[in-house]
């Protein structure tokens, strides 16, 4: 019984995650968005018509096998989730992981994500 409740809670969280999933949407942001990069990540940012923030995460096969790629995806998603309230609304973001991110810790990835947010002026002023 307890396992079923935990499973339902996990599924509910993933439904609330506003993500970009379709290749067509990725291509639009790649083509029309502004890009910036640091040592670990590349970020493409584009203004959106909707009020909410949407994020897409891309990790290439060059980074590693599926276990490594999914770990990096989870770390980026968690860094975004914990800092979601600091980002402005009404934009689409695509985050591309570079090969150098392989084996890095959560703190390194979070720092890289916030650094790119500051570069692109998409972070709210911290009080």
Break the fold down into its secondary structure elements and pairings.
Layout: H1 2-16, H2 23-32, E1 34-37, E2 41-47, E3 54-59, H3 66-82, E4 91-97, H4 106-119
Parallel strand pairs: 3-4
Antiparallel strand pairs: 1-2, 2-4
Provide a quick synopsis of the model.
This protein is an alpha+beta fold and 127 residues long.
Description:
The model has no long low-confidence stretch (mean pLDDT 89). It contains 4 helices and 4 strands, in the order ααβββαβα. The chain has one domain: Ribosomal Protein S5, domain 2 (2-Layer Sandwich), CATH 3.30.230. The protein has a 4-stranded mixed beta sheet with strand order 1-2-4-3, with helices on both faces. Strand 3 (54-59), helix 3 and strand 4 (91-97) form a beta-alpha-beta unit. Helix 3 packs across helix 4 (106-119). The chain has 127 residues and is of the alpha+beta class. The longest helix has 17 residues, at 66-82.
Mean pLDDT: 89
CATH class reads Alpha Beta
The global form is globular
Helix content: 40-55%
CATH topology title: Ribosomal Protein S5, domain 2
The largest pleated sheet is described as:
4 strands, mixed
| Total separate domains | 1
Residue stretches low in confidence (pLDDT < 50, at least 5 long) are none
Number of continuous helical runs: 4
Q: List the secondary-structure elements in sequence, H or E.
A: HHEEEHEH
State the total count of DSSP E strands. Answer: 4
Provide the CATH architecture.
Answer: 2-Layer Sandwich
Radius of gyration: 15 Å
Question: Structural class of the secondary elements?
Answer: alpha+beta
Distance between the termini: 43 Å
Strand content: 15-25%
Query: If strands are numbered along the chain, what order do they take across the biggest sheet?
Result: 1-2-4-3
């Amino acid at each position: 019984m307890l396992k079923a409740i935990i499973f339902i809670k996990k599924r509910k969280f993933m439904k609330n995650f506003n993500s970009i999933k379709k290749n067509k949407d990725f291509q639009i942001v790649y083509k029309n968005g502004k890009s910036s990069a640091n040592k670990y990540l590349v970020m493409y940012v584009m203004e959106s018509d909707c009020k909410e923030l949407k994020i897409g995460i891309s990790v290439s096969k060059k980074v590693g096998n599926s276990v490594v790629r999914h770990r990096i995806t989870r770390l980026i998603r968690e860094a975004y989730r914990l800092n979601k309230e600091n980002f402005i609304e009404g934009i689409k973001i695509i985050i591309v992981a570079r090969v150098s991110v392989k084996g890095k810790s959560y703190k390194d990835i979070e720092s890289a994500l916030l650094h790119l947010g500051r570069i692109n002026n998409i972070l709210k002023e911290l009080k």
